[in-house]
Amino acid sequence: MRLDNWMRHRDRVLVMGILNVTPDSFFDGGRHVSTAAAVEHALAMIADGADIIDIGGESSRPGAAPVPAEVEIARVVPVIAEIRKQSDVLISIDTTKAPVARVALDVGANIVNDISALRFDPEMSSLIAATGAYVVLMHMQGTPRTMQQHPHYSDPVTDIKAFLAARMQAAVRTGIAEDNIILDPGIGFGKRLEHNLAVVRAIPAFTELGPPVLIGLSRKSFLGEILNVEVTDRLVGTIAANAIAIRNGADIIRVHDVKEGKQTAAVAHRLRSDAP
Prior knowledge:
This protein has one domain (4-270): TIM Barrel. Helices cover 43% and strands 13% of the residues. The protein has eleven helices and eight strands. It has helices at residues 4-9, 35-47, 69-86, 98-106, 124-131, 156-173, 193-201, 203-207, 221-227, 235-247, 258-270; strands at 14-20, 52-56, 90-94, 111-114, 134-138, 181-184, 214-215, 252-255. It has an eight-stranded parallel beta sheet. The radius of gyration is 17 Å and the shape is globular.
């Protein structure tokens, strides 16, 4: 499956379902560590309407330590291969490492979701250019281990927009087609509550760059700060925030709860002034 037609028309909001094959992700860590459990969950998300399954083998929660590429590969590749046997759904590999992305693309992934925006591995850009894969370029201040220690901006919207524009230009210079790029301003990645709120309010500024904008705010800590609830009680907050994000121009939402995300996307998009 390709995204070409959707990238041209963007006639609906896509829903990316999160599948963490990790023991330590902030919400679903440890739930899908076996291949069988991960595939079962992926198929359930597909049945609920997921357009993309985003599979990660390394946690990027605040404070998370990196894991070796071979550990990531062992976690994600059997899952991707089995999902591909059973579905033509778009599959995204959530990694910053070219060796992981290479094997994932070989067994059926379509998209590389790189939270470093191609900065952490010098081989990633050339790999994506050579394979013609789609890529998500995300803004992050620092690394997962350090990003929430002292996040600071002159102006969060201006700074993040400039970063994404620069990373998009760098990707194109290495041979990645601009039509294959998706941008993510990185909710929760090196951002305090006020920064996250500013990002969601300013999605129109990021859409001005051209590529589709992905927003990933599912059950994140800024919702817990607003609502004073734990991660298990943040679904309603997630729905509300995603509806606003879509109203403000988000093209893709990344969610743990696909059924609710799909319904949110359908209603919020129809209420948008530019909806067909």
